């Protein structure tokens, strides 16, 4: 396994994803873990991430010397390279020239890391890499034993290595997709240089996870809040595989679910899998709690609170339950560790089924804690969950509650559910569902005039929303074919009585957000 030490870069998670894609297990930890931790982790190799800071200004942010005493290869990326240079006796200097974005780097590709990896050759026959750079500071003096591995005109030491010790460092970011050969470089490092075995595959993982769940819970009972989303569904399937009837899942119908969602959950888990499922019909309760409330954050809070209360009521009936299972995945783990130090501004308070308070006094079981989303999906397929469920677009915790602008009413939710189902059905029929990142319909509680047959209509408006994104932090609206938009509009207006106008949202994020509330 590979240890990734994080200096707080936005893209550290991507390093871990690239390593996992090479089928090697890795974990991300804070840069200042102790020497003892590193020894116990016993990594095959260590990767030092980038940072938003400067090595030059905050030279105290380093790694334990144990990193360089572990006797394993080390790869420094961006700030990680500068730290490596500084800690091993080189020099880093601040610079007022920032290199940011696309760059072409000359690769001195006789090194084990870069040999045979290049995007093109210059007229002089130099191998070149197309990379993504983002830095101000740079290494100006190599540490003893190092030589130059890559360079650009403005950054003569854009990469360095000491092959005798297995130390490599690059100033660019191989983990981002803009660095064309980045994936190959990381794979080369973990497989060839560290000699890690590519044995991290989901089919192996199931057997291991099942054993560890059994060992952890023994014959005690487990309870899990099933939302129908990917994470809780896969967690349920995995735990069920391990302990069968000792798992009970609670599914709450809050009246804000997508069309047929409740029936599908019943079908998949209860009927096909034989899982113990408690379905709580709480539609009235949610609608009453939301009556008259128009503020988006207030709505989120109410929906979150009601869910927690209902779940607790159900949990307290299951007196034998000793464990609370959750579908927490690795990005949640890294994010909440990072959130302690980073001060991000709250745009929306996301509530997930995961966020249950600690009043149940149950032990936590989180079997997906070490997995990335794509691994969770792969696992779900291996466990036999339907592909449509596993590859479904994300659906927010508050559900249709944040897709009905302003006050939530049962009537609005019913109209929205139908319209949304038509949009998704047509998107699938056009073969575009899996090509876009998220698509849905938003209900606007305003009425406009229309004409149908000989009559005047005065009905509601809905907006279609469809975006493409890789991380949901930024997004583009999808350029859906006009014919498809036309078909969806016709169908919604004809089939959903109460809607007479359909519009398409052409706003990017930023400045808009993906959801409308
Ligand atoms: P925004 O609207 O912030 O959405 O651009 C980014 C992603 O987050 C989802 N989202 C939520 N998920 N609870 C959730 O669990 C929420 O309150 C929530 N609000 C937005 C949204 O669907 C998109 O995938």
How is this structure best described in words?
The protein has 15 helices and 21 strands. The chain has 517 residues and is an alpha/beta fold. It has 3 domains: 192 residues, Rossmann fold (3-Layer(aba) Sandwich), CATH 3.40.50; 189 residues, HUPs (Rossmann fold); 94 residues, 2-Layer Sandwich (GMP Synthetase, Chain A, domain 3), CATH 3.30.300.10. The strands form 4 sheets. The chain has a 10-stranded mixed β-sheet, with helices on both faces. It has a 5-stranded parallel β-sheet with strand order 15-14-13-16-17, sandwiched between helices. Helix 1 packs across helix 5, helix 6 packs across helix 7 and helix 7 crosses helix 12. The radius of gyration is 26 Å and the shape is globular. It starts with a strand and ends in a 13-residue tail after the last strand. The relative contact order is 0.09. About 1% of the residues have low confidence. The protein binds xanthosine-5'-monophosphate. The site of xanthosine-5'-monophosphate (XMP) has 16 residues, from loops.
Instruction: Please summarize the sheet with the most strands.
Output: 10 strands, mixed
Mean model confidence by pLDDT: 92
CATH superfamily of the largest domain: Class I glutamine amidotransferase (GATase) domain
Radius of gyration: 26 Å
> Which overall shape is indicated by the principal axes computed on the Cα atoms?
globular
Strand content: 25-35%
> What proportion of the residues is helical, as a percent range?
25-40%
CATH topology of the largest domain, anyone? Rossmann fold
In the CATH scheme, the class of the largest domain would be: Alpha Beta
Euclidean distance between termini CA atoms: 41 Å
Name the poorly predicted regions: 340-344
* Second CATH tier, the architecture of the largest domain: 3-Layer(aba) Sandwich
Bound molecules: xanthosine-5'-monophosphate
* SS field, number of helical segments: 15
Number of DSSP E strands: 21
